[in-house]
């Protein structure tokens, strides 16, 4: 796959103009362009009268090797980097010891999820309540000033930012593409797909609660394979906060 950077189009461009810009940039005909995917969309608003969208596009073409050779000196035509998340380990067969993760904020959630995806069966300990209960407690404080010191905007399933609008502006410099893994998991859990490519991704208010629930379900289903066991685990999760 070829990655094209700095493809600039007017703010109000038609959808078809993206593929036309690819053809123009690479000097190829329509039948040589197999497909393309938007990796990133930023903007240049320095001139208020001429705001531009700036695309980074991953392009599949018939004659990739030939084009890479042709554009060898062009910094805006390069091979698409390998962005696939590489797991650092795989749980040995018959592993009996289990990793313990303390807290189910974003760090605990991803630590648990990645451990489960590697085949481990993490035990996750969270001091606060499950996310729906926590929502009631948090809004109870914000609206009526009833503070529950154990269940609030700081403590509970989902962690501190659960009731935010979900701005995802971190990992601007991310040479190993770790942020991509996070974004992919968020989209799989119901975040808007555009967070995959917009320059300032933003999940949107009130979506995080459902996303946290889906992430937790996914984690549980990886750890506990049978439906009956899953139902039991969800019961344990919501009553004792101990995921086994
Ligand atoms: C109102 C608000 C809005 C925010 N908005 C954004 C945003 O839009 N974008 C953004 O990127 N960041 C935002 N943040 C920051 C973001 O929430 C944090 O950076 C992030 O939550 C940190 O993740 P964490 O997992 O390290 O810690 P936390 O989210 O704090 O999670 C820690 C978890 O551990 C649990 N815990 C603590 N002690 C124990 C214990 N002894 N035993 C068991 N469990 C324990 C807690 O209950 C909690 O669930 C916001 C934060 C707040 C408060």
Automatic annotation (TrEMBL):
The lineage of its organism: Bacteria, Pseudomonadati, Pseudomonadota, Gammaproteobacteria, Vibrionales. The chain crosses the membrane at residues 219-238. This is NAD(FAD)-utilizing dehydrogenase sll0175 homolog. Keywords: Membrane, Transmembrane, Transmembrane helix. Gene3D superfamilies: 3.30.70.2700, FAD/NAD(P)-binding domain. InterPro entries: FAD-binding_protein (IPR028348), FAD/NAD-bd_sf (IPR036188). The keyword Membrane applies. SUPFAM superfamilies: FAD/NAD(P)-binding domain.
